[in-house]
Design brief:
Structural class: alpha/beta
Helix content: 25-40%
Number of helices: 11
Number of domains: 2
Largest sheet: 7 strands, parallel
Oligomer: single chain
Strand content: 15-25%
Order of helices and strands: HHHHHHEHEEEEEEEEEEHHEHEEHE
Number of strands: 15
Amino acid sequence: MASEGSSGLRKGFLSHLNNGTSTSYVEPEDQYTGNSTARKVLEATIRYFYEHLGGGSYEELYDTLIQLKEGTVPDEFTAICRELGLATDADAEDLTKDWSYRLHQGLFMAEKIFNQILGQILTTQSEDFLLPCYGKFCRLLARFSKTNDFWIHTLNHDLFLESLMDGSRDFTYGVDYSEGFEELGSPFYGDYGGFKVRLRRYTGQYAEPVRLYKLHGSMDYWLFRENGPERGHYPPTVVQKNDVIAPYELYREVEKNGKLQYDRDITNYHPLFLSGVEYKKRWYEYPHFFQKLLADFRDNLTKSDVLVIIGYGFKDEGINELLADSMNDPDKKVLIIDKYPIIHSLVREEMLRLGGLEAFDFKELEGLLDAPRPAIQIIGLYEE
């Protein structure tokens, strides 16, 4: 999210928090809309992050929130909570719950609000400046996917690239692509105006030569969680939904006592995307989704002939470890397209194409695509 920056993000968070009970940043159905305790706890976290830890990126801010929720709360943080009007054990005569319990609950709910606000900020940023250069990129995919395989891996959560490839922004950019989700046979539904609409669920089957892997999740991915054995035991599944279906209107069709019924998942608070420098790494081994995506990424890197890296700053060491073998392979062509020089041990000068995608000479890549059918690996696209 380079265009927002840490100071801009802080301003964005605080402005949303200062809206009181406004629902502008979340779905109206959200149960935390007016939770003043959670909002004050989140504001206390932001203040503590900047005033006592020196600030940083929103990823580091998220790690701080998780550390407060899971570890020992420092006195400085408690003092900020009191300044914001949150009563601690020493401030009230009759509390039904002790401070540590109430603070834990506030931090638990603050994490949900954090992700809801972050999702709103990510989806409201303007990306119009990317249209011309990514239009060229999409036209290249449409033209050469008839004879080449493209495996696109991105760390971004937004839907910008999808909106180009499916033609919703400009029909001239249309590209047939797959994300590994299927609608046919899916038992998952969303409620829209009283009607059940079937939702696509992740199967890992890719039917098109252009394949999109969102390694850190997406704004339209939602985790339908596991139910207990009394409701019918089944594993968590990632489904796709758009904004017209509310977060709490996700259902699974199940058979119970010989009859079909809909089980609703009421635990959905926000889309499935990863945040945090350290916290996101916990999800890399999540067996129902992210572990599979990263396994595909590793396999695709091995099979590809050309590796194109667009706008990736080599800041995720987990991803860098997976890239290392391919970038050191003398038989693999590597192109790194970025606005500015990148200093990293994996990056060699002959790989770099500076000036960004808008200055890139697509003829160089077209020349590689005109050769006998290669598999093309693309990662990065642009950083948030």
